[in-house]
Design brief:
With about 525 residues, the protein is of the alpha+beta class. It is about 45% helix and about 10% strand. The protein contains 18 helices and 13 strands. The longest helix has 19 residues. About 25% of the residues are buried.
Length: about 525
């Protein structure tokens, strides 16, 4: 199969076999044009083949991608700088690449946490970093103290019992966020500020509106966790960031408008580095956000007898806010230390770590185990068994309260019984009403019973058929890593990259690639 390859202004013809993959084609092109490739820890230099506007993957067969005789493929040499570090997010289960060079490893853990926070959208007071050896990394240390190499992988852990809450904030599910909020008033206020920060980064407008109605402010700093209030002076400086700063860093113009519409003080809210939202948007190059913020800052606020510029209006609002804070008899604002004597506290390196990304279910299970050990049960060895015993006792009590219902044997329907019933319906004398109701049943022709023997199991019940179907789907998901629906969506998205092809050809290509994965399994 003759195919033309365009590279660096030259178009050459190559003869490829129909079963050859894109990787084999790259090797032939590399040897023909004498291209020097590179792959080390700092970066790589590789070939990229494009056809009909889409990038061809190495494992694809040329014919599966719709490449026919005398087609033209474009070949480009690309250079890619590899990330200096990878950070595994325990909440979203994604790997965050951190760009940089060898000088990044000479920086502090505090600087790395700032980069990770900008990548994932979580406040720095919510997570900690650990090495693969489960060593916690403290802000004051440098990365070289932990002997990290280029391309190393770190783990980002969050507070125990917060995994479900943070995932609900990322997805923007208001009901789930409300479900996983704490009952403690101090921790509840902190969780609301964290949820508003994350919703501002990811653009969850409905969740942000609900949190602001609950009392969360977009110009209020996230602060430290209440467990760390006694040592917050040595904490990360980024705890002074607000939700409006997260929305400005992500370029979420809808959230910026919503925050400013509810609280105009967000226009002049400064982050720990002295930057207002307008300067943050200018640095990141968000043109729409910059135009909107400039328009709001240079607008005029009109009253019945006076008109004020936005700058003067914000100054007056800040002054009124400070006066209300001092003169308010009901203290709605917490003091400098929100915790009291007797509350738990966390000190780096001295107390038991509470940031291990333990789920809420695992946290409750651990509490059950502690209860079982403290009660010294002889026959109950774990909190899970104790939990099962409690559930069993509850179910027994419920069965004793409810009357026993009589059970009937299942009705077995076969082809012979259905034929006999149809014969009786046709021959048995009935009333006019019964004939009118049952004549349509006798007129429907039934399919003939096939006598051809095959390998399928016959006379399967519905539970057996459902079990076989679930087993096949589980085996597919186990080997492929995706469900059949996710697999179809994945290959449809890949085929849609070939924009120069008609939609039906893209659909055929996606079907062929999906079928290949099933054949491999």
């Amino acid at each position: 199969m003759k195919i033309f390859v365009a590279f660096d202004g030259v178009c050459e013809s190559f003869d490829f076999l129909p079963g050859q993959t894109v990787k084999d084609a790259k090797q032939v092109i590399k040897d023909f044009f004498h291209i020097q490739l590179l792959d080390d820890k700092q970066g790589r230099r590789y070939l990229e083949l494009t056809y009909a506007g889409g990038v061809l993957r190495d494992e694809w067969v040329l014919t599966d991608a719709g490449i026919t005789i005398c087609s033209t493929i474009k070949c480009v040499v690309k250079e890619e700088e590899k990330p200096a570090l990878y950070v595994y997010n325990a909440v979203t289960q994604d790997k965050l690449p951190i760009k940089g060079n060898i000088h990044l490893l000479e920086g502090t853990v505090s600087q790395l946490k700032s980069l990770v926070s900008q990548k994932c959208g979580f406040p720095v007071s919510v997570f900690c970093l650990r090495t693969l050896e489960n060593k916690e990394m403290y802000d004051c240390n440098t990365l070289s103290d932990y002997r990290l190499d280029l391309g190393a992988t770190l783990r980002m852990d969050v507070w125990d019992g917060w995994k479900e809450l943070l995932w609900a904030c990322v997805q923007g599910h208001k009901e789930n966020v409300q479900r996983y909020l704490s009952k403690n008033e101090t921790i509840l206020r902190y969780q609301q500020r964290v949820a508003l920060y994350i919703s501002g980064y990811y653009g969850n407008l409905q969740l942000a509106e609900w949190l602001q109605k609950k009392g969360a402010r977009a110009d209020e700093a996230i602060g430290a966790h209440p467990y760390r209030e006694w040592c917050c002076n040595t904490d990360h400086p980024d705890i002074g960031k607000c939700a409006i700063h997260a929305a400005a860093e992500a370029g979420q113009i809808l959230l910026i408008k919503a925050f400013i519409a509810r609280n105009v003080l967000c226009l002049q809210c400064q982050n720990p580095y002295g930057l207002i939202p307008l300067k943050i948007c200018i640095r990141n190059g968000y043109k729409d956000c910059v135009l909107y913020l400039i328009m709001k800052m240079w607008s005029v606020v009109s009253f019945p007898k006076i008109s004020l510029s936005m700058y003067i209006y914000i100054r007056v609002k800040k002054w009124l806010f400070r006066v209300q804070k001092k003169l308010s008899k009901v203290k709605r604002w917490a003091p400098a230390f929100k915790t009291r004597v007797g509350d738990p506290f966390v000190v780096d390196g001295f107390t038991e770590p509470n940031m291990t990304s333990t789920s809420l279910h695992g946290l409750y299970q651990g509490k059950w185990k502690k209860v079982a050990r403290s009660c010294n049960y002889s026959r109950i060895h774990s909190g899970q068994n104790l939990f099962n015993v409690v559930l069993k006792l509850h179910s027994v009590n419920q069965r004793e309260k409810t009357p026993k219902a009589s059970r009937f044997p299942p009705i077995m329907k076969t082809a012979d019984s259905s034929a006999k019933k149809r014969h009786l319906i046709e021959r048995q004398p009935m009333d006019n009403t019964e004939i009118h109701e049952n004549t349509w049943k006798a007129q429907i022709p039934l399919p003939p019973i096939s006598s051809i023997s095959n390998n399928r199991p016959r006379n399967l019940t519905m539970p057996q058929a459902a079990h076989l179907l679930n087993a096949s789907l589980e085996s597919f998901s186990k080997h492929n890593g995706r469900t059949p629906r996710q697999n179809a969506i994945h290959y449809l998205s890949l085929a849609s990259e070939f924009k120069e092809k008609p939609w039906l050809q893209q659909l055929d290509m996606a079907r062929m690639l999906a079928k290949k994965t099933v054949y491999k399994i």
